[in-house]
Amino acid sequence: MKLASFIVKRLFLMLLVLFGVSVLVFVISKVIPADPVGAILGGNAPVELVEDLKRRLGLDKPLINQFFDYMSGLLKGDLGRSLKTNRPVVKDIAEFFPATLELAISATLLSIVLGILLGILSAVYRNKFIDHFSRVFSILGVSMPVFWTGLLLLLLFYFRLGWLPGGGRLSLFVTPPTKYTGLLVLDSLLSGNMEAFKDALAHLVLPTVVLGYSAAASIARITRASMLDVLRQDFIRTAKAKGIGKRLVIYRHALRNALIPVVTIIGLTFGGLLEGAVLTETIFSWPGLGRYIVNALLVLDYPAIMGGTLFVAVIYSLVNLVVDIVYAALDPRMRI
Amino acid sequence: MVRGSLLNVENLRVVFYTYRGVIKALNGVKLWLNEEERLAVVGETGCGKSVTALAIMRLIESPGEITSGRVEFLGRDLLSLPEEEMEKVRGKSISMIFQEPVAALNPVFKVGFQIAEAIAHSQNISIKDAYSLVPEALTMVGLDWKRTMNLYAHELSGGMAQRVMIAMALAVKPKLLIADEPTSALDVTIQAQILELLDNLVRVARNAVIFITHDLAIASEFCDRVAVMYAGNVVEVAKSDEIFARPLHPYTVGLIDSIPLVGQRKELKGIAGVVPDLVDPPSGCRFHPRCQKAFDRCKVELPNLIEASKDHFVACHLYTAGDRNGDTAKS
Amino acid sequence: MENMQVEKTGISRWKPIIEDWKHTLYLWRRTKLAMVGTFIVIGFLIMALLAPVLAPYDPIKVDLANRLKPPSRQFLFGTDQFGRDILSRVLYGARIEVWIIFLVTVISGTIGTAIGIVAGYFGGWIDEVLMRITDIFLAFPRLILAMALSAVLGRGLTNAIIAISLVEWTVIARLARAEAMRVKSQPFVEAAKAVGASDLRILLLHVLPMCVSPILVQLTMRMGTIILTAAGLGFLGLGAQPPTPEWGAIVSDGRSYLINHWWISTFPGLFIALVVLGFNLLGDGIRDILDPRLRR
Question: A291, A132, A114, A295: which is closest to A208 by C-alpha?
Fold first, then answer.
């Protein structure tokens, strides 16, 4: 099957799943044991006020109507209004998501570069020092809880050594750059604000390392396993018999094949990064979507919770779609 | 001492280190080959024929190791060459084709690319330039190059894939082609086609061939000479018809006896006993536990390959040089 | 060379099974990491089991006179802001972790297996529908979904366990489905159908037993992840509520005191890391042992 029809098919499936996701979110929000009206007004509000609020929130209509309102709202990009900030949730997300995106991108970059490199070296120099080091590094990386590593690094590099800032994206005394993308590092480069650039970068280091380490670990593991598997295959023997040299055999013949499962893992680790971001943002007071959702959770700001979760699901699904497409592009056997 | 003009393998020993112990796969293999000559290497699974081929190409890797021996090719000992020099030999002077052709091709690259890569390496040109030579290579093996060039390995049938491998191996015009059971994984009818193709191509291009197989019939038909291997040693070497007409080594006798002939009504014969465990192989001649004619010397001393009669070599204590009847016997 | 003797074999029917187990044990002993993992897990279980015996102090009782004491011979891991001994809290915390793992494994294993084998065995639209449902759950990153479910169900350990189970079942379901599909095409299933066995009977008596083994292996390999998710929820305040000494929650407790009282957060986190490491090593070991290439 051609690549194009494969993409279309996958896209359709994704939309189907996302529909299901929004239904699920709707169902969950209706099944809440807690009472959203009560959460706003308090337990002892007079009946008329309760009824009034119910009507205004559209909660008095039959469930089906509520569902249609909900879906049409979604299609228009309306995720409701946050109970805490009293702003449309979409606006909140637009404000906080770039911070998470910046963190996720830098962590992904770190994890891919570090992970794949370690994985390849580990497989090619099997059982030598680099292999043992990499395996220890990896298994620790997937075993240590992100929030613990974060706290320890914070303790060491901020509280004790003072080398890196302890939280937030930018120090108070630094002028923030003009907002182009919301990605501070990029924005400060674009507006030529070097002080902000260095400061933003410094703030980015610890959360990136914390987040990227566990992702790097799982990527390294899968790369190593995949590489070892590929190096055992017959066609590698053929490639060697052609006399093209060990380096070409590894980087041209083996890698293309070995990276295929790695691409899938990158998709999965992105999901892990989104989870880890929640914890990392909490520790480093990083004003991103993760922390937004957590705060919403703690005060039971349901529109924010549901809206934020739905948004995360959409992003995650998109990433997985891209991963599937890249996978099919790399492996001609997969284009079914 | 007998020597070949193209290839001389002397006393080749290969071991494999495994959990169970050290497998002594090759126990001092001796082979020789002349230019344009076709040598069959036959033997049961596990006797070391493939290992020998890989050792000649220096493709033995951990946990395997070539522990001693000489592989003299066109005057140079391949085993002592630096790796970069060896790379110039592989895919250029010596080519190899393998048993499972579809698996032997890289699944993510098109066929055209893989052939171009081989040609590019052998002629020291860029892969892009090599592409223009691919159609000729594919046509040579009887494939429609326009279509085949853009196919992937999994889209090929076994026969087609083996033709591609042959194209890849012969397009570089090697002096020696090593074919490791190239037809064993194919249907019988396809087998015949591929063998015929190989026969024609090799005859025209005048390559020398080492043809590894467990099938004696194919060996005798395709090749000029046959070398029989058992448990890591070459036990008999002779011209094809000679080996069938007058097998000398008890193992060879057993092999030939075990082939049922069409029209014959006889009981199927096998060779008593089992293939030895190469971690703890029998001492002396490795065939002695299964040999009806074994005597004391066989248990102690590994026999050398000697010329029992003209151009007929055997590694067995039953024979001495010039004695093809096995008269000079035991104690 | 005419007659080949056929030996009478006197092998009992148990021998092959015993041999296989012996070989597995041999491989297990050879894999040092798997052994280390096993010992860690056993140690963990012992901790949990013997907590009341091993803990020097009451994990819940407040003792303000001893608050925020650094690690010493009296308080091996120091005390927290309420004067509670961290060591005792960690020991009791192990019980909670075991409880969580056990429940989540049972619940997610049951749901996942049931859905998976039904989907795999029946195929067709049942399979499509069930798989879409699974996809929907998989569309969320694990922790995010667990968080959302926790919030909806309300805070607390039980709800956290339910939330995690609702996220974990999908992994098992996928595996169960793949196994069921593999078993479905086996001749003995066709034979059972030909004799007239009902689908339910086939599912329970034939398909299920064949799938159990790989599912159990996968469940074991997931245990590390389950702990991490539970600890994450605990850290965020969504899991066990104070004063329950869940490890993630204790780490969170220590956050405000991190600068000068590092021990409150460090030790429970260390144990989380160790136990998860143990499960991961064990899981890796199991996977290596089962790898047919390494079995000789």
Answer: A114
